[in-house]
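@channel sequence for tomorrow's demo:
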Amino acid sequence: MEIYRAKEMGFCYGVRRAMKLALDAAEAGKPAATLGPLIHNPQVVKWLADKGVPAISDLSDFHDKIVIIRSHGVGPSCYNDIKCKNLALVDATCPFVMRNQQITKELVAEGHQVVLIGEKNHPEMKSVAEWAEGQSYLVESMEDVAAMPHLAEAHIVIQTTFSETLADELIRAISLKADRTEVHKTICRATSDRQRAARELARRVDVMIVIGGRNSANTTRLAEVCREEGAVTYHIETAAELRPTWFHHQDKVGITAGASTPDWIIEEVVCIMEDMSKLLESEDINLDVHKGSVVNGKVVEVFDNKAYISFGYKTEAILPVHEYAYPVPESLKDVLKVGDELRVQIINAIREDSPIYVSKIKVDRLADWDVVEEAFEKNEAVECEGIEAIKVGLLVQIKSLRGFIPLSQGDLRFVHSLANLVGQKFQAKILEVDRAKNRLVLSRKAVLEEARDSELDVLEVAYHNGEVLKGIVKKIMPYGAFVNVNGVEGLLHISDISWKKIAKVEDVLQPEQEIDVKIKSFDKEKQRISFSHKECLPDPWETSIHEHAIDDVVDAKVVKVLEFGVIVELEDGLTGLLHINEMTRDHNRKPGDICALGDQIKVRIIGIDENRKRISFSLVEAASHDAAEEE
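structure tokens (generated this afternoon):
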């Protein structure tokens, strides 16, 4: 087993400074305590407490003690409280955090709008937000950006330990919601250097060990970075958590550590890892049947949680239930019986005094790698099942293999999470496959794009032929509705819903309603489609118009008021002009003086032009007609 250390790891400058200030206070012989954990590492916090510098959560607990401000900083109210209580102060705030606080304070003082990018519950961001005096927006995700109003300007300040990749995505999103943006790149260089070094190392090894507190944001991100690169990653706090079963003799193992992880914990992990390496090497040298050998065996006994396999060796091997298949069966008795023949792989070093363990799933994986490699070469899709949504994408199961779908490859449009795919089976194409590194990266988006392109071809034919299609209303907007036809969405404008004038779309349509549509316009290159529903309905100019004649007096509704008259609509959907000259003989009056939008009036039909689809009305003649009838 080869062990490699990341070029950059462990204590950063800000943490070393905070530790030195805390130890100096302890060595001075004066009672001191930190206001909250000095750094995000439980072992260091306990070590400081043993040195006489405990962590206290509230200023009310400080009596005749020196107050040590934690590396993540505090807000101005805390400094005021310390001053009012006349307590001695040692400020261990990280200089980079202090810079964030100062930048934010100055921007607010100058009247600028501040947008803070960071974790809402992180102590650093809580302190920086307090320096903004309530004049800031705190953004952690795309949902937070979407909830922001449109801004005239946005001065962006970023958490020192935040993910560079996510920060860049959020900055791009914020720039679309502000007329002007200015970015203050305040991610600590130590954070970015550690992420870069971890990423480079993870690409070269099989297994990554990430050391640091589980409550440490920068350590958690290091683990995420390593997993993104395809390395099997374990996040531990101390060497006591290491397990020999994580490693094989031939593995390349990388080690990195968060900015709040002390050297002594790192060295202890390295020492234990080196001992494990020697032990694994010793085991491999003395094998009679080598670990990793694939053998043919026969089931001789079956239990719920294990089965005994005979493969011609002097002792039977044990097949644990979790090494049979994925998903793990509830009981091996459900899938195996005595006499069944299996092809299995030996997964541990064989010793005289210890049992032999075998795995069927590892043999299956060898065959499954062949399947995915062939699919990759032929550019064919494979079936996946979503098993866990993470910040940067989705972990999936392909037969017995694990794969990863990046967030950008999960759907046709950008989505904030792929959690909706957990437990779902779907097709995906393989972007990258590396059997040696156990790396398998896929794209669901590529399959959806192929399906969409195929469906666009079908819709193009339907457009040219004027076919009626079935669509599902997906989203209602003030100006219309988005309709899905076989997986492709297009706009149904409010004016294309009905021959009648519509005030609100929801008066006619509801989400998930199935309706008939025709394609009104089609742009395959830009993938823009607009639909018409009213063209699937009887045109009143072809049907109802024949039920009307000149001189008929009819009921009508005012649907639009113009300078020169009003547009009125009959019950059957026919609309026409009622000119101001036909509304009154008083030329000083305007249409709005006589009728209002929504008024129900009686009008006489004075003109019908079927070729031009125009009908004209008279209010004056209708009134004369009513008067004549009364006489």
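heads up for whoever presents: The longest strand covers residues 381-390.
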